[in-house]
């Protein structure tokens, strides 16, 4: 069962990062790198969506955030954090995004879903406070969504 869960986690991470590499962003500050991206949930496989309790829909998006402590000579170390996020569309409508922590093997990430409409550009506002840090890191991400 552990191998299956790890396989699913790897699949989810690959889908979240590899499908829209051009849309993946990161923010570096205070010795941390915050990786953040957003995709339509319809891109997830049914199995991955089911295992993570994500509704697959062309009208739902998924925000994925990971927090990595910069460690010289390595790819860094995943850390827990207090993470809050919301999205603003171009007319200023705010979508709150409830995030939940996912831990798989050595990976720690935060996911949350939100509504999307065709042709919409969403600007995501993130506030990340890594565990043990007193200073939050502000990050932003802008993503266009199109529905087929």
From TrEMBL:
Going by the UniProt record, its keywords in alphabetical order are: Signal
Signal peptide positions on this chain:
1-22
Membrane-spanning regions, if any?
none
Q: Which residues form the DUF4426 domain?
A: 28-148
Keyword Cytoplasm appears in the UniProt entry: no
Q: Which Pfam families match?
A: DUF4426
Q: Tell me which domain of life the UniProt entry assigns to the organism this sequence originates from.
A: Bacteria
**Could you tell me what this protein is called?**
DUF4426 domain-containing protein
């Amino acid at each position: 069962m552990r191998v299956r869960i790890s396989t699913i986690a790897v699949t989810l991470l690959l889908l979240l990062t590899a499908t829209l590499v051009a849309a993946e962003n990161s923010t570096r500050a205070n010795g941390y790198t915050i990786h953040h991206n957003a995709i339509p949930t319809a891109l997830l496989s049914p199995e991955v969506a089911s295992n993570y309790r994500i509704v697959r829909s062309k009208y739902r998006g998924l925000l994925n955030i990971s927090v990595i402590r910069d460690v010289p000579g390595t790819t860094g170390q995943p850390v827990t954090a207090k993470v809050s996020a919301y999205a603003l569309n171009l007319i200023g409508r705010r979508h709150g995004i409830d995030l939940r922590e996912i831990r798989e093997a050595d990976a720690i990430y935060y996911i949350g879903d939100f509504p999307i409409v065709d042709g919409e550009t969403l600007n995501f506002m993130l506030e990340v406070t890594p565990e043990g840090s007193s200073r939050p890191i502000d990050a932003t991400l802008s993503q266009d969504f199109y529905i087929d």
